[in-house]
Amino acid sequence: MKVHQRLFIFIVGVCWAGQVQAQTTPQVLTWKAQTTYNAYLVRELQEAYDVRREKLTQAQQSKPAMQAYQAGVKQQYLNVLGQFPEKQPLNAKVTRQIKQKGFRIENLVYESRPNHHVTANLYVPEGKGEFPAILLMNGHEMTAKATESYQKTARLFASHGFVVLSVDPFSQGERIQLIDEKGKTLTRGATTEHTLLNAGSNLVGTSVADYMLWDNVRGLDYLETRPEVDKTKLGAIGNSGGGTQTIYLMAYDDRIKVAAPCSYFTQRERYMEQAGAQDGCQYMPGEGALEMADFIITAAPKPVLILAGENDFVDHRGTLQGYQELQKVFTTLQQPEKVKLFVWPDGHGISQPKREVAVQWFRKWFYQDTKEIREGDIGSLPEKDLLATTTGQVTTAFPHEATVQAMNLAQFQQLAPQRKAFMAEPNLPMLQEKVRQVIGFQPNTNPVFTEQSGGSQVKSYRVEKQIIMRNGELPIPALVYFPTGKTAPKKLIIRLAENGKETLVKNDSLIQQEMQADHVLVLADLRGVGESKDDPKLNDAKYMSHEYRNAILGLHLKRPLLAQRVQDVVTLLDYLLSRKELSTLPVLIAADGLYGPVVTHATFLDNRIAQAELQNTLTSYERYVANPLQQNMYSNVVQGLLLQYDLPDLVSKIAPRIKHNTK
Length: 663
Hints:
Elements: H1 2-23, H2 36-59, H3 63-81, E1 93-100, E2 103-113, E3 116-125, E4 131-137, H4 148-159, E5 163-167, H5 190-203, H6 208-225, E6 229-239, H7 241-252, E7 256-262, H8 268-274, H9 292-299, E8 304-309, H10 316-332, E9 339-344, H11 352-367, H12 394-397, H13 404-414, H14 416-423, H15 428-439, E10 448-457, E11 461-470, E12 476-483, E13 491-496, H16 501-505, H17 508-516, E14 519-524, H18 548-556, H19 561-578, E15 587-592, H20 595-605, E16 609-615, H21 622-626, H22 647-653, E17 658-661
Parallel strand pairs: 4-5, 4-6, 6-7, 7-8, 8-9, 13-14, 13-15, 15-16, 16-17
Antiparallel strand pairs: 1-2, 2-3, 3-5, 10-11, 11-12, 12-14
């Protein structure tokens, strides 16, 4: 009998333990939420582009209306760009000349900024100039200007009466920025380096695309110094990432008279929906509803040829739809013949048929010649023959080379007085409002409501599973632990873990410690963390960010992830403190990892947080600027934040309320 009693007690105990464990599982949401955050951001993207489409449709009613639309788009673009530096001497130097049939190649270095060297090849036709000139902006191949298809593009143009300046984008060719002591790249390729450098660039108010644009503007300046060049006939062509540079340049610099982006043009809205974010040089934060077509529209009705591969990974339906928009715009401007789409049934790249049509297009507008072009056996040279530096890399050839990361760090240091002046505002509410504006935080005042999806109770505490909701925001899954003793709760503790509340639920000793201290404990996942963490398969590892696509969408929409998560903290507080039994409790937030900057901002902006304790987290954005080889930087990047303040500046204002633990 005693044996049976023990067995019965054992079985009941096991069942009860299993029941308790099942009841306190970390899952709160009643649906799978891995793609919920991205879907939320894509909806915002679609809404922004819906507004843009309506404006464009209205502009098509008349030529003056379209010209007003163009002016508005141009101003939006200039606002996104910000300020460029004053032009300094180019200090251009030709390091080698190579004679070819019908033209010569000059290996060239110039400084787009002081000690920031651009390597290039200049192709000069035989004969008496002046000749039209083409700026050739190359795609993401590491060989850049020495890539065979780009060489053949330049050679074909030069053989038909064009001076061509073929430029190495930085992070490629002879311009790798992140290298070891032996001059070898520290990243897996150009797209990774562009993306890592872009994070620090964004923080100091610029972007990798901005840097490239300025390199190209200075390339046009160099072309204008050459006696062989007709300064009134400058054009631009680029493939892939060079196509991005082409439309940015033609929209910015009125000297470009004819352009041809290749294997790039589509609709950004469709591409971001379907393929997610591209690398860091493909966007400028804050573009919002600007479409790829808008950059071309800004320059309309200058002649533009869209070169596309029907089987390109670049969304071809978007190419066709974007081209239809351009046709309507050029028709409204009464010059429909100046826009053309050439599609070849190949994939990505500037292949021979595209090169031939491109040269024919530029000859039509610069030479009034419409004859067909045939490339033939045009040849190419080995990469070593096209090097402009003695070592093959500007970072080793020039001892004082100003790399992008070094320029970003210098800018951070130069901004110190500006940050000090910003933080000198004596009125705290006014300063708080200025910080909200910097991060793009607009408080959502819609009512908070909840849905309890479960709960459980053990001897020392009970648990509620609450889905906290607010119209316009993502639901917040939270576990709320209440001690069941006779003593009234003393504190409200909110714990946020970078790896999700699941890691905290497993820490029974932590939960028991809080319950014994008579604390109400809240374990929550803010958007993009834990239950709503984005599917890692949808974020390319080369970008070194587990939520890269959502981060880029946020920056694009002027809603950085940091600001969105600050909103989640506010929503969490609004709900918890609306409960009568919690309304008078002091609030302490403990957080780690990517949550650090979020909680720092939330504590600065919301006086309801009595204390914040942060662990293993970013303490200054200088770290990202000085060393771009960091994981998950984009989770907390805010465009231009370091123009106004850094994290220690906020902490200094609320020092008694915030503490960093070093353990």
